[in-house]
Structures are given as C-alpha cells and as structure tokens.
Design brief:
Aspartate Aminotransferase, domain 1; 7-stranded mixed sheet; Aspartate Aminotransferase, domain 2
Length: about 400
C-alpha cells in the first residue's frame, strides 16, 4: 500500500485549523486590523464587534451569556486563572475554604497549579482516585466533601485515555454540597454535547486548537456572580472586565468563535458519529493483529472520546515502536521526559497499570480527516514494525 505523506493520528494533541475557520480569520490580520479596545474610531469598532460575536459563539456552545466568557491564551491559562484566581481571592477576603479537590488524571497544568497552591499558599489538596476505566470514584469524592472545600476541578474528557466523566452527576453532588465546580473541557467539544455545561459548572476551560481552531487562544467561562471572586493573573489596562488585561487578539478570537459555531452545527454531529465508527474500526483491526497482544486502556463505547484509541502492546516499548514507525505515523505516548529521565504516564498508573504496561502504551487519536485507508495503512505498518 503506497503512502504519499505521514499519517497523522495525534488529533488530541492538536487539530489543523479548518479551512472555513482560517477564511474567517484572515481579514482581521489585514483589512480589519484595528485594536478592539480602540473605542474612538471605526477600525476599533469593527474589531470589537468581531470579538463580541466570537464571545457569543463560544457562549452559545456551552449555554451561557457572552459576558461570562474571558478569552485567554489557551486552556492552560484558563485552568491557572480558575484555580489561582479563585484561591487568591479567598485568601484576600479571609475566607475559610482552604481545600481544593482534583482527580488523579487531571491535565498537568491543573496538577501543577494545585501543587503550587499547596506549597506557596498553604491550601490542602486532595486527590480523588479513578477506576480502571478512568472514571472518578464518586463515593470517594463524596467522602472528601466538607464545608472547607473551595473548589473541585475535574476534567470532562481525559486527554490521554479519552474517558468521558459523568459531569451531570458530579455537578449535582457538588451543588448539593454548595461547592464550586471547575472543569477542564479542552477535549470535550468533540466528544459530548456541551449545551448545558454552563448550568452544570461554575468555571469551565476551553481551547481552540483542540476543535479545529487556531493555537494561542482559549477561554474561561466564569459564572457571572463569581466574577468578583477571581483575582486576575495578568494586570494592566483592565480589559475583559478587569479579569485578564491585555489586547485581545482579534483574529484568534474570530477563529475560536467560528470553530465553536461549527460545533453547534448539525453536520458536526454527523462528523462525530463517523469519527466514532472509524475509531471502533481501528480498534477491531488492532485486535486482529496476530503479531501482538493488544489491550485497550480506559473506557469503551459511549464513555470514550470518539477519536481516542489508547492501547498497549504487550512486551513492546511504545517509544521504540513509534521511532520505528517514523516517518510513517504521528502518534504519541503518555510518557514525559523530566531532566532526561523518561517517566511513565501518571494517568495510566492511576488506572492501575504497571510501569511496564504504561510504557508499552500508545495513544492514537483520530480526526475528521482520518480515512479507513489511513487506518489500514497504519495496521499494515504495525504488522511490519511491531517486533523488529
């Protein structure tokens, strides 16, 4: 089978910018280049209108109002603003809620933020475990809840194993305990219906480049009555309700807004269904590989991101395998390199995998552009390379 270019299966790391999204962005780099905060002339007005429309498109996707959307540089900044902004405000007003709960499989930026709040601000951080599918143990979470808990931060869809949490159930539990709920939803728009997320969460982080928008732009939804309980990370001219100073990047906002608008399109839903079918086809073909024993990490079916295929190949080192597949395939492992030492994925360890099992795991993440021919070619390549 002939291949013209490398097969890309790392869509959960980043998606390409959709052609129609790029077309919407381009005029704001050239003709409509005005500063959206320049309020005395038409160039500024046009840019401000474009940013406002983008906020409407983002807010419509999650069922909130446009003035509850703060544009950021991405989900990492949004997560930092949610955790640090809320915690520092609690300290400044002398509040008594000094505990934050996160799950064991949060994105690294949430885990690191929590650790800094513990070491630098003396917050207590509790980590709730997950089961072998990556689902938060609800009974364990419930046992940790008390009136000294400020915030619970649990991601809606895991970036590594694709597990989709029961956000509605978690939300109900926290509302009944009067505890704020933040969710990292960077991976969620391609995986689940987000129409009611604004009523189920108090703070919510998004990233454009996970949903066919541009890199360098994200958003944080902050429930309107919580705005005065968030201390900004970036100070300056007081843009965005005083919560995030700095000139808003109009072209990037336009791109994110239009990408969110596409998520709400009926055609998008059909694309998600087709993506899930391709995922299941890929998993079926992997199981039929006679050259390796293959197991799926994480949840299956509807509880999994439609493009996520995280699998382990028994007795195979994932890094070595991916190296052998270059330049045929772009996929990833969950391992991290810190100070020159390869560390196994903490997400896979939280699911109960041994270090050896974690190190034999690969995340293939499919996108709308992935074809069955792509999948067949990857399967054929794996057959050749897996035990070299």
């Amino acid at each position: 089978m002939e291949i013209k270019k490398p097969i890309y299966m790392d869509y959960q790391a980043t998606t390409p910018v959709a052609t129609e999204v790029l077309e919407k962005m381009l005029p704001y780099f050239t003709d409509n280049f005005g500063n959206p905060h320049s309020s005395d002339h038409i160039y500024g007005w046009k840019s401000a209108e474009a940013v406002e429309l983008a906020a409407v498109q983002v807010s419509d996707m999650i069922g909130v109002d446009k003035d509850e959307i703060i544009f950021t540089s991405g989900a990492s900044e949004s997560n930092n603003l949610a955790l640090f902004g809320l915690a520092r405000s609690e300290l400044l007003k002398g509040g008594k809620r000094r505990r934050i709960i996160i799950s064991a499989i949060e994105h690294k930026c949430v885990i690191d933020s929590a650790r800094k709040l513990q070491s630098e601000y003396d917050f207590q951080i509790d980590v709730v475990g997950v089961d072998e599918d990556g689902l938060v143990r609800i009974s364990e979470l419930e046992s940790l809840l008390d009136n000294d808990v400020l915030l619970v931060s649990i991601m809606a869809v895991n970036n590594e194993v694709g597990t989709i949490q029961n956000v509605n159930k978690i939300s109900g539990l926290l509302k009944s305990s009067n505890i704020l709920f933040h969710s990292d939803c960077a991976q969620a728009p391609l995986a689940m219906d987000m129409a009611n997320f604004g009523t189920e969460t108090d703070l919510l982080s998004l990233s454009a480049h996970k949903i066919y928008g541009p890199k360098g732009i994200g958003a944080l939804y902050i429930r309107r009555d919580l705005k005065n309980q968030i201390e900004p990370l970036i100070n300056g001219g007081g843009q965005q309700y005083g919560l995030r100073s700095g000139t808003v990047p109009t072209p990037l906002c336009v791109g994110m807004g239009y990408a969110c608008g596409l998520v709400n399109d009926g055609e998008f839903e059909q694309k998600k269904i087709a993506l899930q079918e391709k995922r299941d086809y890929f998993i079926e073909r992997l199981f039929n590989l006679h050259s390796a024993r293959v197991s799926v990490n994480g949840a299956v079916g509807e509880q999994r991101h439609p493009g996520n295929v995280n699998v382990r190949f028994e007795g195979v080192n994932a890094h070595d395998l991916l190296n052998r597949l270059q330049p045929i395939l772009a996929a990833s492992t969950g391992s991290a390199c810190n100070s020159g030492i390869i560390e196994s994925s903490y997400v896979l360890k939280a699911l109960g995998l041994s270090p050896e099992e974690a190190e034999s795991s690969v995340r293939f993440s499919l996108g709308f552009e992935t074809s069955r021919n792509d999948i067949d070619y990857v399967i054929a390549s794996l057959k050749q390379k897996i035990h070299i």
